[in-house]
Specification:
The protein is an all-alpha fold and 217 residues long. The protein has a domain of 48 residues. It contains eight helices and no strands. The N and C termini lie far apart (56 Å).
């Protein structure tokens, strides 16, 4: 298959993003039989997020822009879903923990975008935020029969015990001479970078300047 030029690839990416947006909005409208005008604010939020994703992939190449665009796009999708009111029983007070779940998903995807693999420094906070969002869903949908405020007011000392236990575990873990996974990954990356620089410098030294004919005469 013929390899496309960068300009053609950017064009394909832009067309793909537009088709995805059009398919999502039209699909929501058809499946839910929504006959009124589309919510402009939600559509604009999703489009702005999609534009930031496109810029990060095709122009800027910045992980922060990619994360922000993806997060804004997902928030726009939730706002669009709530505006359609296809499920009247589901309101914002039920879906607010989804913002934390979206944050964890964006961290995962940003890690893959930036490093082309998963790294602990991104995965650990992403998993933690995802677990917190899942716990908050239990309260927002009423699966747990008492409010989150009452739970915190009664069990907040447990949070202190858990945080203290984590800090003590971190201290004991490093006292044994072990290193955290993200430190190992960072040291490995720095070692690889130093190795590449050394190999590059050796290659430059081996390449000599050709001597001109008759220079010794």
């Amino acid at each position: 298959m013929k390899k496309f030029t960068p300009s053609v690839l950017r064009l394909l990416l832009g067309i793909g993003v537009v088709l995805i947006l059009a398919g999502m909005f039209c699909g929501f409208q058809v499946l839910t039989e929504f006959t009124e005008q589309l919510p402009i604010s939600s559509v604009l939020i999703s489009i702005s997020g999609a534009i930031m994703i496109y810029l990060s992939l095709a122009v800027v190449g910045n992980a922060a822009v990619f994360f922000s665009g993806l997060y804004i796009f997902l928030i726009g999708c939730v706002s669009f879903f709530l505006t359609l009111q296809s499920f009247p029983n589901i309101q914002f007070r039920h879906l607010w923990p989804s913002f934390m779940v979206f944050c964890s998903i964006c961290l995962f995807l940003t890690c893959i975008y930036k490093y082309k693999r998963l790294r602990t420094i991104y995965v650990f906070p992403a998993v933690l935020i995802f677990v917190l969002g899942a716990v908050f869903f239990l309260f927002s949908f009423g699966i747990v029969k008492f409010s989150f405020v009452n739970f915190i007011s009664k069990w907040w000392p447990l949070m202190l015990i858990i945080c203290g236990g984590v800090l003590v575990s971190m201290f004991l873990y490093q006292q044994t001479g072990n290193r955290f996974p993200y430190e190992t990954e960072d040291s490995a990356d720095s070692t690889d970078a130093v190795g590449l620089k050394r190999r590059g410098s050796r290659g430059k030294k081996r390449v000599g300047i050709p001597r001109a004919h008759g220079s010794d005469e």
